[in-house]
Every structure is written in C-alpha cells, then in structure tokens.
From TrEMBL, chain A:
GO terms of molecular function: oxidoreductase activity, acting on the aldehyde or oxo group of donors, iron-sulfur protein as acceptor; thiamine pyrophosphate binding
Pfam families, sorted: TPP_enzyme_C (PF02775)
GO biological process, one term: cellular respiration
Protein name per Swiss-Prot or TrEMBL: 2-oxoglutarate synthase
UniProt cross-references to Gene3D superfamilies, sorted A to Z: 3.40.50.970
Every Thiamine pyrophosphate enzyme TPP-binding domain range: 64-212
Membrane-spanning segments: none
From TrEMBL, chain B:
Protein name: Ferredoxin oxidoreductase
InterPro entries in the cross-refs: 2-oxoacid_oxidoreductase (IPR052368), PFOR_II (IPR033412), Pyrv_Fd/Flavodoxin_OxRdtase_N (IPR002880), THDP-binding (IPR029061), Transketo_C/PFOR_II (IPR009014)
Keywords: Oxidoreductase
Source organism of this protein record: Heliomicrobium undosum
One protein family per Pfam: PFOR_II
Domain Pyruvate flavodoxin/ferredoxin oxidoreductase pyrimidine binding per the UniProt entry, residue ranges: 23-245
Length: 254, 361
C-alpha cells in the first residue's frame, strides 16, 4: 500500500508566509528571483540584519515580501535610500531591489554613482526588457526589434540606442573588490549562488555588489508560456550574457 | 565620544552657513548627506571639517535627489540626519521631501534661498517659499521655520531636529543667501545647558530581533492600491498635522498694539521692517510688524487679529507674492486696505518701507 505524499511548496524561511501567495502575475520572474534571494538570505543566516528596499514599478509588490524590515521608495531611488541607511548603520545588510527602469533609466545616475563610490550595498535588478507595471512600454533593455507599447513597430536602435548592458557597465566602473554578475530566472540554482556571493561581498565589507537577473513578463510580452521561456533562454541571452563579470578573490561562476 | 562641540556659551562672529554646521553639531546630528549648490555650500564645508573630530559622518551624493533620499535613509535607520540645498536643488529635492511627508520621516532640510525660477541668481531671494511649504505632490505636511538672523539660524536649526523627531514631520530651516554668506555675531550654546533636551531618535528599519519570530517586520511603503485607502492615509496625516500645528506654530510682533499700519513680512526682510518702524514711530507714524516664524503651519489667527485692528496692511517680500499667497487666506473677509512691496530676488531696505508707508498715509 502506498501513502500519498503531500508536497508543500518550499518557501525560503525568510519569506513572510502571511503575504503569500505573492502579488506578482503568474509566471512573472520576480517570484523566482526573490526566491533565490530568500534562499541566499537563509543560507547566510542574515535575516535579522537585512533591510530590503524596493522601487516603484512591479518590484514594489515585494514591499511586504520578507520577514525582514523593508521600505518601498520612489522610482529609481531605492539605491540612495539604501545608501543612506548603510552609511548610517554599516552593520545592516542593505539590499536594493529594482527593475530595469529603476536601475538603468530613471535611477541610472544613482546606480552609476553608488557603483563608482563602491557603496557596500547589494543591488538586485530584474531585467524583463520592458516596463511591466505601467503597461509594457520600451525599457533601456528592450531588445532590438522588440515590440512594446512605445515601440509598436519594434525597437529601432538607430533612434533609441542599444539595450543597456548593466552588469558590463557596473563592472567597468567598480573597483576590483566589487561583485558583478548576470543570472537568469531560467537557472535558479546559479542565480542563488550569485545572490549569496553578492551578499557575502557586502557582509565582508568588500564593496558594491550587483546582480542582474533576466526575468519574464507574462502579461506584456503577449506570448504563451512556451514562447516566454524560449524568449528568456534564447533571445535575451543573445544580448545579455549570463555569468559572473567581476568576482573578488573567488572562483568564477561560468 | 569626543568633547561636545560647543562647551558652555560662546559669543561668535561668523557666517550663517557656518552657524548651521555648528548648530547641527550641537544638536547631536550623526550624519549629513549633501550636494553642492550655492549659497549653502559652506554648511557642508564646515561640517566636513568639524564632523570627523566629533565622530560624525558625511556623504557627498551625486545630486540633490540622492541627497534627499539618503537623508531619508539615514533617518529611517534611526540617526539624526540632515541635508541642505537651495534653488534648483530644492526643486530636485521635492521628491524625497514628498516621501518624507507621506512616511512622516523626521528629516531636516536647511534651505538657503537663492533667486529663481530656474538657475536664476546664486545670491538671494525669498522665492522658495511656495516650494518649501507646498512643493511636490503632497499637501504641504511640513514644518517650515523662516529665520531672520544668525542667532535664529542657530536656535532654529537645533529646534528643527527636535520638532522633526517629536512630531515626525519633515522640518525645514528656511534661510537665504544673505543669511548664508554674511557674518554677524551670535551666542552659541550647548543646548543641554539651556535646558533643551534633544528628542531621542529611533530606528524605523533595522530594528533589533528577528522579524517574524521576535517581532513583526517593519514594512514601510508609500504606494497605495486604492483611492479609498489613500484617502484614509492622507486624512489621517492631515488630522495629525493639524492636531500638532498649535504646538508648533510661532510668530513675533513689534508695536502691534496700537499700530495703524501693519507690515507683514518674514525672514530677513523683517529686519528692514524693524528699522522702518523705529523711523516711522520717531516721525509719529503708528507702524507695527507681524512676522510669522513658522510659514507652515501658518499663524493665521494671530495675524487676523492684528490686521483686523489696523487701518492698513503692507506686505513686503523679496518675491512676487509667494508669501502674500500664504497669508491672504487668513485675512479672508477683512476689508483692511492692503498694499505690497514685491521685489523678487532683491533685498529690501528700511528706506523703501518708510517711503511706501508715508505714501500710503
């Protein structure tokens, strides 16, 4: 006789159960990325020291996601808010969580300058190649030819430039003590390892750490599930190479 | 901990910006975040020289948006934190100021007004009144002290930190380029020796204990999902502000008891008014002055009582009616004849006021 096994969804311990199921659209990358982050926080045992900051845009839905102190701030301003906290209370582990708009468009100057100053912060950026919450407009990371609400005939790179290569930029302007990587929701174990290294870099007081995570938008991409995965795994990775770009004194993740 | 920056009382002769830096030190400020803009730069200059000697910190940010938001971050983490700006920097800083309004973040902002709009001059004006009191997408739930001299810069910078932390509304010291740059004498003091207890600060994030086990997490947001939800939040904020306003509001008067002409002004312009009143009184003209010290909340009732008794009102400001627009709702329904001296971006002398009042007679 066999007994039925009830499989409960395995949530990171630092997730706040009362706020689950989470508020992101089914199939959205945020849930997976935040799972990787949560696992990393659990494994490092830093839940009681973490202050989590999130932006405006879809990422704001994570304001009550963790059993950690959290603050939701303005569009693109999560980095300075967390900088302000970290500078005042260096013992806290400050995580700034944002989308591609918050990091590469409206908040680009904050990302660039926090990276240049080598702030002892961890910035996690979900790159879903468009603006989700505002209805699917073009983002700095929209792929060439990709259709969005404000590039209805496909992104014309002659008129609007090429997709922003965030980690490459951050790697170029940070000192050797920074950690910079690009992961993907298509490889959660790897993304989790990157998150851990990024947080460890802050714990060690080394410097700035930055992880971009390739993500999906099941709503505005107007694709079915299979195509969504294909887009994340094949189309996005043509421009956005997954891997570590800067690792201080540690083995590089391929 | 290093020695107190101000021991006992000291008579000093220095610039207003230097006074602000010393006042922040005396108030026990932990950290300043700032971005250069004239005419407030020397607040940072003196702070960066003095702060390390007293175990205090500083961060020069990439712009005023960041300076405002890092200040909010510092305050959220439980530290006494402030920033300073002017003109176009004040414009940029409205965004973090609106977050401070919404989340009741007790951040302190020192504004040394310069000319406007836009880049304008780097010297002087009273043209940041509307923006400082009512800027950004909010209801103006702020406390704004308009100072007139260096002693007040010292007194009200210290007071601003206590007002901010006691009532938890963002608090502003509204100075100007003249006050920032000129030297004059004042008495500096250790607040404790004058019985001023600095209100304790406390963290809103980064709280002790494990969230979810020992305590609930602090989950702060300024986004609301429905109009009804926001309505409740803002109504509560407004009610709290209005409850505290009578405790916060301040004004001063000169010779108002029998005044036939009342000069209404604020900040450094009041010093021209004081001199004008002395001259006018010597000539037998019954002139007086009403000066709000808090522009937000505004001393509406006391102003109304004074103007009601007067025969004439003269509003004087170094702006094109920004202060008048703040004051006029208090006077609704009164028929006291009113004249104005509006000089955007220019200082005002006692001679001009005397001449105007004599012409009004």
């Amino acid at each position: 006789m066999t007994t039925a096994t009830v499989l409960e969804p395995k949530m990171p311990k630092c997730w706040r159960q009362e706020t689950k199921p989470h508020k992101f659209c089914p199939g959205c990358g945020h849930g997976d990325i935040l799972k990787a982050l949560g696992t990393a926080i659990d494994e490092l045992g830093i839940q009681d020291r973490v202050v989590f900051g999130c932006d405006i845009g879809c990422s704001l839905l994570s304001w009550d996601f963790f059993n950690c102190d959290a603050i939701q701030t303005h569009h693109g301003r999560t980095t300075p808010v967390m900088t302000g906290i970290k500078r005042a209370r260096p013992e806290l582990i400050c995580i700034a969580y944002m989308g591609d708009g918050g990091g590469y468009a409206i908040g680009a100057q904050h990302l660039v300058n926090a990276a240049s100053r080598n702030e002892k912060l961890t910035v996690i950026l979900a790159n879903n190649a468009q603006y989700g919450m505002t209805g699917g407009q073009m983002a700095p990371t929209t792929l060439p030819g990709m259709k969005t609400e404000t590039s209805p005939y496909g992104r014309d790179v002659d008129a609007t430039g090429n997709p922003t290569l965030g980690p490459e930029m951050v790697a170029a302007i940070t000192p050797a003590s920074a950690y910079v990587a690009r992961g993907t929701m298509a490889n959660i174990p790897q993304l989790t390892r990157m998150m851990k290294k990024a947080l460890q870099n802050q714990i060690d007081g080394n410097g700035f750490s930055f992880v971009e995570a390739l993500s999906a938008c099941p709503t505005n991409w107007r694709m079915n599930a299979a195509k969504t995965w294909e887009f994340v795994e094949k189309e996005m990775t043509k421009y956005f190479k997954v891997g570590e770009l800067k690792v201080p004194a540690a083995k590089q993740e391929g | 901990m290093a020695d107190k920056p101000i021991q006992g009382e000291k008579r000093m002769f220095m610039t207003g910006n230097e006074v602000c830096a010393y006042a922040a030190l005396a108030a026990g400020v932990d950290i300043m975040y700032g971005y250069p803009i004239t005419p407030q730069n020397e607040i940072m200059h003196y702070w960066t020289r003095l702060a390390p000697k007293h175990n205090r910190s500083f961060l020069q940010t990439e712009d005023e948006i960041s300076a405002g938001f890092t200040t909010c971050g510092g305050v959220l983490s439980g530290k006494r934190a402030f920033t300073a700006t002017a003109g176009p920097g004040n414009t940029l800083m409205q965004e973090p100021m609106s977050m401070a309004e919404m989340m009741r973040i007790p951040a302190v902002f020192i504004i040394q007004q310069r000319g406007g709009p836009s880049t304008a001059t780097v010297i002087y004006s009273q043209q940041e009144v509307t923006m400082t009191c009512y800027g950004a997408n909010g209801e103006g739930l702020r406390v704004v002290y308009s100072t007139a001299n260096h002693q007040e810069l010292y007194d009200y910078t210290i007071k601003a930190f206590n007002t901010a932390w006691k009532y938890r509304f963002p608090t502003f010291v509204l100075g100007d380029g003249y006050q920032a740059k000129m030297r004059e004498s004042l008495t500096m003091y250790d607040p404790e020796l004058r019985g001023i207890k600095m209100v304790d600060t406390y963290p809103l994030v980064g709280l002790p204990g494990k969230a979810g086990a020992d305590r609930d997490p602090a989950h702060l947001r300024n986004t609301y999902n429905t109009e009804e939800e926001l309505y409740e939040v803002v109504k509560e904020l407004v009610a709290t502000y209005e409850k505290f306003a009578p405790e916060i509001v301040e004004h001063t008067t000169m010779e108002c008891d029998d005044a036939e002409v009342v000069i209404l002004c604020h900040g450094i312009v009041s010093r021209a008014a004081v001199e004008a009143i002395r001259e006018l009184r010597a000539d037998g003209v019954k002139a007086g002055m009403f000066r709000p010290i808090t522009l937000r909340p505004f001393p509406a009732e006391p102003l109304r009582n004074v103007v009601q008794k007067a025969k004439k009102l003269l509003i004087v400001e170094s702006a094109e009616g920004q202060f008048a627009r703040l004051a006029l709702p208090s006077l609704y329904g009164l028929t006291t004849p009113m004249e104005t001296i509006f000089k955007p971006g220019q200082g005002i002398t006692s001679d001009e006021i005397v001449k105007k009042i004599k012409a009004m007679a």
